[in-house]
Amino acid sequence: MTNNHDVGAVNELPENFEELKRAANRSASWRDRLNAVNELGNWDTVPTIQLLHYLLKSDQVFQVREAAYLKLKQLDEDVQMPAKNKGDLFKGLNKILLRIKKSLPDGHTFEQFKEKLQKTRLDIYDTYEGDKDAEFDSWLHGIWETLGRR
């Protein structure tokens, strides 16, 4: 982390810093984390910059990492653009999804599968929804169709 901050820059923490910190760590909502990143990027303080660095390095959703990168660049931090995720974001994803599919009655619909995934494993649902963005439904549908055929 490089500290190239102007002496005259805002050095106060936002009043809602603790709330933003909780939102930045909320694993069940990539949108909350993204909103937190966007707000944290308006504050040039060591704690907010550290939190942005943490999200840049560790968040599973590319959109959140990319937003953290852009905010850190605006704050003149020396950071590298994050790479897109490759492979599964959760170990044993196919086993988890197969278990969910098998828990549903024969002849269930894709929508029922999707709803059950969202209710039982919101962490997986939310992370992949954020990571896959517009392709999420087609990606999940493709997996649903192939589960249990092997």
Supply database-style keywords:
150 residues; mainly alpha; 59% helix; 0% strand; elongated; disordered N terminus
List the helices and strands and how they pair.
Elements: H1 17-24, H2 30-40, H3 46-58, H4 62-74, H5 93-103, H6 110-120, H7 122-132, H8 136-146
Helix pairs in contact: 1-2, 2-4, 3-4, 6-7
Summary, kept brief:
Helix content is 59%, strand content 0%. It is mostly helical and 150 residues long.
Number of strands: 0
Oligomeric composition of the shown chains: single chain
Beta-strand content bin: under 5%
How many whole angstroms does the radius of gyration measure? 19 Å
Helix content: 55-70%
Largest sheet: none
Segments where pLDDT lies below 50 for 5+ residues?
1-9
Helical region count? 8
Compressed to H and E, one letter per element, the order equals HHHHHHHH
Return the structural class: mainly alpha
Distance between the termini: 47 Å
Q: Per the principal axes of the C-alpha atoms, what is the gross shape?
A: elongated
**Average pLDDT metric:** 87
Protein architecture, described:
The protein has 150 residues and is mainly α. Helices cover 59% and strands 0% of the residues. The protein has 8 helices and no strands. The chain has helices at 17-24, 30-40, 46-58, 62-74, 93-103, 110-120, 122-132, 136-146. α1 packs across α2 (30-40). It is elongated. The relative contact order is 0.13.
